[in-house]
Write a structure and sequence with these properties.
By secondary structure, this protein is α+β, with helices and mostly antiparallel strands. The protein is about 35% helix and about 10% strand. The chain is built from 3 helices and 2 strands; from the N terminus they run βαβαα. It has a two-stranded parallel ribbon. β1, α1 and β2 form a beta-alpha-beta unit. The chain is flat and about 45 Å long. The chain starts with 18 loop residues before the first strand and ends in an 8-residue tail after the last helix. The model has no long low-confidence stretch (mean pLDDT about 80).
């Protein structure tokens, strides 16, 4: 299969070296009208749209989230747990066969 790295609104091919990860709480109250996962939905939408518009790779959504200790309107993880999850995701991306598909593609003949 031949990838077209120049397809879309690509201003610079180096954008293919950038990955976007969405971070947002799945369990945070914002009142009776909004769902608990509002933050995660907004973060996912913004991350995906940024990826589509720029050509950057959308790497996914981080499931755990953290908050300042004084915020009491949701269920959150410790900051260390979020960092550990990010390490796991990034390590998995660079050490599995999937990593090959995430490398910057080259044009035929390069």
């Amino acid at each position: 299969m031949r990838l077209r790295v120049e397809a879309g609104n690509i201003l610079d091919e180096r954008v293919h070296e950038i990955g976007v990860i969405a971070l947002g709480s799945f369990l945070e109250n914002h009142g009776p009208v909004l769902p608990l996962d509002t933050d995660a939905k907004i973060a996912s939408y913004i991350g995906l749209m940024a990826s589509l518009r720029t050509g950057a790779k959308f790497l996914g959504v981080v499931l755990p989230s953290t908050e300042y200790p004084y915020v009491k309107h949701g269920i959150h993880n410790k900051a260390e747990e979020v960092v550990e999850y990010l390490r796991f995701i990034l390590f998995t991306l660079v050490t599995t066969p999937v990593a090959e598909s995430l490398h910057t593609p080259t044009r035929e003949g390069d």
